[in-house]
Design brief:
about 525 residues, alpha/beta, Immunoglobulin-like, TIM Barrel, nine-stranded mixed barrel, eight-stranded parallel β-barrel, 13 helices, 19 strands
Length: about 525
Amino acid sequence: MKAIQHSIQYDRKTGQAAHFESEASCLPENQFPHIVEDHVIGLYPSFRFQKVDGFGCALTETACYLLSQMSPEQRTETLSFWFGPEENKARFVRIPIDSCDYSLSEYQAVADPIADPELNTFSIDRDRKYILPVVKEALTLSGGKLSVLLSPWSPPWQWKTPPQGQKNDAVTYGGQEVTEESLTPSRNNGGSLKPEFYGSWAKYLVKFIQAYLAEGIPVTMLSVQNEAAAATPWDSCVWTCAQEKDFLRGHLYPALRDAGLAERLEIFVWDHNKERMVERIEEMMDPEIEPLISGFAYHWYTGDHFDALALLRGKYPQKVLMHSESCPLHMPGRVTFAEMDLEALKKKPRASLAPEEAMILDSVGDKTPADVDLEDAFAYAHDIIGDLNSGMNRWIDWNLIVDPNGGPRHVAGGFAAPLVYGADGKVIRTVTFEYLSLIMDAIPSGSVRIGCSSYGAEVEAVAVSSPDEKEIRVLLFQRGNKKTTVNLRLAEQVISVELPPESLTSVRVKDLIG
């Protein structure tokens, strides 16, 4: 048995991620002077769980616009970080249907569906400018192995009710609560699709899917609505569970079936945060709806809730659990999601601070951008390992790349991404991206999660069998500031692995016995 260790450690002073690779010590357990019981992580290949279909990211208009500003060589290199044969080999891409917050402006494929109820003016020309060329290049780089998830943020605004405030989501996403219920309909701030337009919206979605397929884009997945309970300051639409079921059962699925798309598309519901996932799915999954749904999509913005995934995996073992969005909630290289003078805020009397200013100061404390960058990477490793251990099949990040302000986008503020297109025209690979690269290398598409038991919270671990079943791959994440030695125990063999402080490590176990 042979084990190769690859570790990543981040230097807070230089902001660089250092890589270390070595062969780990591997001995039969009976050659140790005493029974190995300390710092043990047990590996059990005979216990097999879900298949891991792979990883991916979103190609929003923002990301594709930034890629279009690069030279052909730089754009290909940047896309290759995710989709190329030598790097991550990502297999999934998420694309918004019409505009989202990460679009250069608001738009929809039919400008005025009231004047054009037959949707004769439907066009995806806007997507042909930036999105489609980039997606096609990514498809080529992947060797044709991409699968595309389409997600709508809002139906055409003319079909919607006026927005209504939803405080929880406004706070979660950094927006202001909308309290004026008499506002006119909008793509932004929520509102709901009027029932009389359910059939029209189903027809619209079918036309969008067909248009992408006609461009040679392998659309294989559709989520019914991005963040179905969020009235965010950007493109959004609120659906109750009853409304979503009515739309899916009575309009969307029949439209997909009649267009010959139902058998080739996987339909996902929820596409929102984990903490309300169980309640929504339990209400959704009646005997008529369950056969129409392939899986449950979810985001990470309100906490771990790994148990929620485990509950759903246990009750619905045939459904796909797909993490469909995550991003750090601050601008690149900064500690907040909006432009603000933190030092000036710290000098103001506490009583004079607006509630959102106080909340930001409390969350930031004395953190530096380097601290926050490392916390991002930690959050990604922790969440991915926890999700995998709870039954996740697919993982898709948010924007492939953003600019130094976390945009551009058509609403204020901005959020970070694993890749940043710097003001100097260079692409910055953040420590989060380095973590993701290691994770995707350790867990290739088609891996199967196996039994793994860790000795404590000090080191988080997940293990898989490689697609060819010739290797065991283990991810080990430890955020402590001291070196830690762990003992991987497998088939009466012990592999001793020294983990650097604040590091992510993969171990590839080859030449398996038995």
